[in-house]
Amino acid sequence: MENNTFELQSSDFEEDRYSRLRLIPWWDQERLKNATVMVVGAGAIGNELIKNLTLLGIGKILVYDMDAIESTNLTRSVLYRAKDVGRYKAEVAAERAKEMNPDVKAKAFIANIIDDVGLGVFRRMDVVLGGLDNREARLAINQSCYKVNKPWIDGAIEVLNGFARVFIPGKGACYECTMTDTDWQLINKRKSCALLTHEEMASGKIPTTPTSSSIIAGIQVQEMLKLLHSDRDLPTLAGKGYVFNGLTHDSYVVEYQRKDDCMSHDTYEKIIEKQWSVSSISWKEILSEIRSELGEKAVISLDRDIASTAKCSCGECKELYTPVHKLKGEMLTCPKCGNQMQFDSFHVINGDEDYIDKTPADIGIPKLHIIGGKVGMETTYYEFSADEKEVFSGLEDNV
Question: With contact defined as beta carbons under 8 Å apart, do 212 and 159 qualify?
Fold first, then answer.
């Protein structure tokens, strides 16, 4: 009798990997399968984010991190093993995600989120998740997401405490709105050290636990799920933060004030996709095409300052052609006398420059980026859409 009952129950329910998730009334697994999510930072929080996204069956996961795995990561990172020490975090995290769930496509990018990721990449995301340890990277993500009208969810932890915050363009405060004078002082101090190496910029280690990272990452992914089901009228933390005190297990939600004059609220109204690649088309060709559309007074406007040449008081001169943010001390050391050189920079191209035949890649513009064609106060935005295939190779839709 008991066997017959069990057989009846088994035949009534055909379960697959996601069947328990589908029991949630508002759940749409197909949306998760078709979603594309960026995870920035593959440390303690990033590991938990990637783990959760993978278990949920998120279709495409892009993992960005510049650092290698250290032995200290093994106490706080569920995806890493002792044999992985020395390998890049992003690569190992992406591999483990694909091992955990064959339905998931994951790709690693060893890249600096501030300089090396084109706005067109952000534009193709459904949600961006941050597991970062510095304000400058958060600010860069915030500005990129707002420019292309995409939501992002920030997470941070320290010891047993942490917080998760949701920022959606047009809905409440953004990350920059939450920044205090102290935050800006720390960012400016970091920027003043732009000529230091990445290793020299590391300013102490933040004490954390795997428990706090799992709590905060869980909140972040839970908020992401609600954003992916935005038509279900589920409440979100848009413009708010969830604060967790692990010592007392108190938690509360804080609402941030939106600053109307915040510089991060700039959103690109119209983006034209061009079959340009940053590595094959020259600035001369780009400017010619833009002027054919906007008129002969159009100039090219960049969203970053590019260091062009460096000059020394001894008369020595050399080309740089790299984003100012990526300058290192040795790059500005005079090879002739050893003194520090001064550099020139630009963010507008008007056609008479001696580098007009260079490609965008030659001066540090990342793949799939977006530039402006400006006439007076009006700007039209153009995307290097021919780079999409290369950036997203390996992330093709599941069959």
Answer: yes
* 344: three-class secondary structure by DSSP: strand
Tens-place pLDDT, residues 62-87: 999 999 999 999 999 999 999 999 99
Q: Are 360 and 372 in contact (CB under 8 A)?
A: no
Residue showing tokens 């839709």:
397
**How far are the Cα atoms of 138, 261, 263, 380 from residue 266, in angstroms, in the given order?**
16, 10, 7, 13
SS3 237: coil
Extract the tokens encoding 248. Answer: 């007392």
pLDDT of residue 180: 87
113 in Cβ contact with 133 (< 8 Å): no
Residue 271 pairs with which residues in a beta bridge? 381
- Report how far Cα 350 is from the mean position of its chain's Cα atoms: 30
Q: Nearest CA to 170 among 239, 261, 271?
A: 239
What is the SS3 string spanning 323-345? EHHHCCHHHHECCCCCCECEEEE
Question: How many C-alpha atoms does 9 have within 13 Å on its Cβ side?
Answer: 6
In tens, the pLDDT along 283-317 reads: 999 999 999 999 999 999 999 999 999 999 999 99
- Write out the two tokens for 200: 């020299």
Cβ atoms of 367 and 278 within 8 Å: the answer is yes
Residue with tokens 């055909």: 14
